[in-house]
Write a structure and sequence with these properties.
Elements: E1 15-18, E2 21-25, E3 30-33, E4 47-49, E5 82-83, E6 86-87, E7 107-109, E8 118-120, H1 124-130, E9 172-174, E10 177-183, E11 193-199, E12 203-214, E13 221-231, E14 240-249, E15 255-262, E16 265-272, E17 279-289
Parallel strand pairs: 1-4
Antiparallel strand pairs: 1-2, 2-3, 5-6, 7-8, 9-10, 10-17, 11-16, 12-13, 12-17, 13-14, 15-16
């Protein structure tokens, strides 16, 4: 049995619903409404559905509408809103829903409405402030050459500690010295060969460790030695001086050395003392600044 708790002080055309019955206040009585159709629409100041049946689909609840519904004003919903079978996220229906977007340290957001873009503004300083160790491989692909302690793809203001091997593809500058290595093309004729050159206006003295092997003979011809080269810095008349020492051979010395000043450079020259079959010369050079 339904209870008819009509609201007090109604206005004309107010509507009250009990169960399946709808009543309209005429100004002096609640009149039951029947045959509500498009040609006989319900007109009311307010419509109250007193049943508390919850809605679990488009066909259940205290009020169901088969077609669409147009609402000219605001709509307040005390429970969860669904659209197309999916829950509409609101602060009321989702605990801890996002109510604002704030950029943290090292990040930025483009806007708080519409399409939001989040990106990183972190510098290397910010990253290393959070931790400066990693077990990942670090590869620097920048190819800037180094011409001093403050140039190159990687510069370090302090010292560097390396627990393993160090492999360098170019020369190494240490203080007032510069060390490099060189392999000459195969030599097969007994004529003078220019092996190395360094600018006389930058460097005064060079030390070479030389390995000469003629692989065209079995056993190979061997000639290893150290060379010391310097010059007197006398302008166009500069003279180069050279001495060979620490000689190790198995078939005598394989050639002679000379130090020549030409084009502003001191040139190291080697002349085989026979016609080589397949002579290979490798050197490590260290030069000292003037």
């Amino acid at each position: 049995m339904a209870f008819y708790n009509f609201p007090p002080n109604p206005s004309v055309n107010d509507v009250y619903v009990v169960g399946t019955r709808t009543y309209t206040w005429t100004g002096y009585a609640w009149q039951i409404q029947t045959n509500i159709t498009s040609s006989n629409p319900l007109t009311a100041g307010s419509l109250v559905a007193s049943t508390s049946t919850n809605s679990t689909s488009t066909t259940t609840g205290a009020l169901t509408v088969t077609g669409g519904a147009g609402i000219g004003g605001d709509m307040y919903v005390g429970g969860v809103i669904y659209s197309g079978g999916q829950e509409v996220l609101t602060n009321a229906s989702i605990t801890g829903a996002v109510v604002s977007i704030t950029a943290g340290t090292g990040t930025a957001v483009s806007t708080s409405t519409g399409i939001v873009t989040v990106w990183s503004t972190a510098s290397l300083q910010l990253v290393t402030d959070r931790g400066n160790t990693t077990d990942n491989l670090i590869r620097i692909t920048n190819t800037t050459a180094s011409t001093g302690t403050d140039t190159g793809a990687l510069t370090v203001a302090g010292g560097v500690g390396i627990a393993g091997d160090l492999v360098v593809g170019g020369g190494i500058a240490i203080g007032d010295s510069f060390t490099d290595s060189y392999t000459a093309p195969a030599i097969t004729v007994g004529v003078p060969v220019n092996l190395d050159a360094f600018p006389a206006n930058m460097y005064r003295t060079a030390k070479y460790v030389v390995q000469i092997v003629d692989e065209g003979y079995i056993p190979n011809f061997l000639h290893s030695a150290e060379l010391l080269v310097t010059h007197d810095n006398n302008g166009a008349s500069t003279l180069g001086y050279i001495v060979q020492y620490g000689i190790v051979t198995n078939f005598n010395e394989l050639g002679t050395w000379d130090s020549i000043y030409t084009g502003g450079n001191i040139v190291l020259q080697f002349t085989p003392n026979y016609s080589p079959a397949n002579m290979l010369i490798r050197m490590v050079r260290t030069v000292l600044t003037k």
